[in-house]
Design brief:
Number of helices: 8
Strand content: 15-25%
Helix content: 25-40%
Largest sheet: 5 strands, mixed
Radius of gyration: 19 Å
Order of helices and strands: EEEHEEHEEEHHHHEHEH
Distance between the termini: 13 Å
Length: 293
Amino acid sequence: MTKLYLGIDVGGTSIKSGVVDEGARILSRERLPIPPDFDAFQDALAGLIARAQAQFPALCGVGISSCGGIDPASGVVFAKLAPSLNYLIGRQYYEIRRRTNLPVALEKDGNCAALGEIWCGAAQDLQNFLTLVLGSGLGGALCIGGKVFSGAHFLAGDIGYAYPAPAGGSYGQQIAPVEVENRYFARTGERRTIPEMYDRRAQDPAAAACVAEFFDGLANTILTMQYVADPQAFLIGGGITAWPQLLVELQASLARLVAERDGPILPQVRLCVHRNDANLLGAVYNCKETFGL
């Protein structure tokens, strides 16, 4: 019988789940809004698991991907995450184990995105690479020798927490698509996505500025990490990777900055094959590897 797993992806704006088979095929999906408090959050996870088990009795494990700084052994969230989920800080994800008979494994979102691509995606031919996940924040993962390197505090690769200039915001505040959209709203009073800003940039100075800040910021982030870790490639994940212009414009920004600065290396960039599903599939792969399922 084919083994089935439940992947849960906890992001800053929603919780996504999917039942996944051994071939990394997603057989069913569910999406929930972020609950208002920790008890409701635990109820939401328990409900996702119970409904998946009812529909797929062969379910053998649960993998959770979450934003934030996370100790995957203890399940404790210790670093800031999306404002909607601040109630998770200091709490124990693995309390959910008391409400299910299934093994549950947890890992941060950036690492899960990398694991999904190692399992069956754009990293199958890579040994040393970095993953950046663009969404409500800027997640990241550092992979060495084909495996995720967590670091001493489980934050390796999380460049979103770093500050590029003493007086400026963090990389995450500069680059995360949701933050870019918020900046545009602050300047114009209108809500637009980065692709929509890009299409309006010729006649909309605020849109042109936000788009330029996004691509220059992302390119600078990649160049900084290139000379810290010297990876073979960068993998970009998150919902914005569905936008065809993303990779074209990012590569152009990288080439321009490298030429301007006479840099020795032009970083290689790929999109995560699984795009917005990378976290979910990586969570499943982490569960499989953790428990030998």
